[in-house]
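ESCALATION

Customer reports they have been waiting on this structure for their group meeting. Please prioritize. Original submission:
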Amino acid sequence: MNKYLSSAYQFGTLGGILSLISFGFLAWVQPDPTNLNLIFGYIITPVSIFLALKFFKDYSNNGYLSFAEGMSVGFVTYMLIAIISALGIWIILVLYPDLFEVIKASKIQVMEQSKDTIISQVGEESFQATQKSIQEMASIDIAINDGIWKIVPGLFFTIIISIIFRKNPN
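Update from on-call: job pushed to the front of the queue and completed.
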C-alpha cells in the first residue's frame, strides 16, 4: 500500500505547506488573505496532483497507471493538502485573533458594499441570513472553507489527470 501512497504523501504535504506559506505571506501583504489564497489553491492543487500521479506512474508503477490507482493517489494528495492547509490556517487564526477580526470585518464590509446587488439577486431574506452567518463566523469556519475549496477542485483535477495519465499494461 505504501507503494501507492508515497508520492501522494510527498506532494500532498508539500502542497499543504505551500498553501500555508501562501496564507501567511498574503496575510502579511493584505488585510484579507482568504480569497487570494483560494486562487493559489487552484494552482497548487492540480500541480501537486499532477506531480504525485506522474511520480507514482513513472517511479513506483513501472510506467502504468489505472484510473483507480490515479483516483486513489489523487484523493490522498488533495485530502492532505486540504487537511494541512485547514489545520494550519485554523492554528494561525487562533494564535493571531486580530488577523481573524480583520478578515471578518473585511467580509462584513464586502457584504455591505454589495448589499443592493445581493438583494436583487437572492432577496432580502437570503442577504440577512448570510450577513448573520458572517457576523457569527468563527476561525474554524474560515479554515473549513479553505479545506473544502481544496477538495472540490482536487476531485475534478484528479479525474482529468487520471484519465490523461491512464496507461494499462495490455
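Sent to customer with the following note: Helices lie at 2-29, 34-60, 67-95, 97-113, 115-122, 124-135, 139-165.
Escalation resolved.
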